[in-house]
Specification:
With 270 residues, the protein is of the alpha/beta class. It is built from 12 helices and 8 strands. Strand 2, helix 2 and strand 3 form a beta-alpha-beta unit. About 7% of the residues have low confidence.
């Protein structure tokens, strides 16, 4: 096991609410990456986006964090982290990755050498690694197949950020029914260039749970049992979180990345 690269998976998103599908992504990724013979999964992090992201129907992060915490009570290796949601301003995904990578290096006693751009992943110097670690750990971004499509959305991503995510970290993408991640990769010169840093995992047991559909069912008073953990369902009912009013939150607003880059249309605000 000592020759395997310790790997931490990070999933960013709304988690509005967290579903069984979100947690299954981690399990599918772990199985696939272990089978490569290169990695040893040391943890998974769910990082809910901040309240000022601007997405329609996004409820307060305090609720999304607590629902994730309840959902992950039975997991031995996945946890929720509130750092991103606690920032005063919306944090770009690459910033969240940088934060957690620094924390990862710190937790494994690894010091980074200073560089001009102040982001020296490639020149990490080992100070004192625990005996179970013989190589520098890695952090990868975990996502669903539809995430790749967002790279093609004008003004949503900065090209230099996409390059950094692909080059310094890498993606683990779970393919779902009806998606074609290889086509999305081929359609992008940048994604194609870093194809070796994108792990595509086939989901053989179809799981079409949608947080949007779940919110719709909840507003209609319909059952969502077996789609969410019972503890999450109880929390939603206790706090009456998803209502017609909550779904209108941020209606008509631009997502923060689009607003910052002067876009006129919000293609992701469903």
């Amino acid at each position: 096991m000592k020759h395997l690269t310790p790997l931490l998976l990070l999933a960013c998103g709304s988690f509005n609410p967290i579903t069984n599908m979100h947690m299954r992504l981690f399990e599918l990724a772990r199985d696939h990456l272990h089978q490569t013979g290169k990695y040893r999964l040391i943890g998974g992090i769910i990082s809910p986006v901040s309240d000022n992201y601007g997405k329609r129907g996004l409820v307060a992060s305090k609720h999304r964090i607590e629902m994730a915490r309840l959902a992950l009570e039975t997991s031995e290796w996945i946890r929720v982290d509130s750092w991103e949601s606690e920032q005063e301003q919306w944090s770009e995904t690459v910033m969240v990755l940088r934060h957690h990578y620094k924390e990862l290096l710190k937790s494994h006693h690894i010091r980074k050498l200073p560089l001009e751009n102040n982001w020296p992943i490639e020149q990490a110097a080992v100070v004192s690694l625990p005996s179970s670690f013989t190589v520098v750990p890695e952090l990868k971004l975990l996502c669903g197949a539809d995430f790749l499509k967002t790279f093609h959305t004008p003004n949503l991503w900065k090209e230099e950020h996409v390059r950094e995510i692909l080059e310094k970290f890498g993606l683990v993408c779970i393919s779902r029914a009806g998606s074609d991640p290889f086509r999305d990769i081929s359609a992008s010169e940048l994604l194609s260039r870093y194809r070796q840093n994108i792990y595509v995992v086939r989901e053989r047991i179809r799981n079409e749970i949608s947080a949007t559909s779940i919110r719709h069912a909840l507003r209609k008073g319909q059952s969502v049992k077996y789609l969410l953990p019972d503890s999450v369902i109880s929390y939603i009912k206790q706090h009456n979180i998803y209502t017609e009013e909550s779904e209108r939150k941020n209606e008509g607003d631009l997502l923060q990345p689009l607003k910052q880059r002067g876009a006129m249309v919000n293609p992701l605000n469903d």
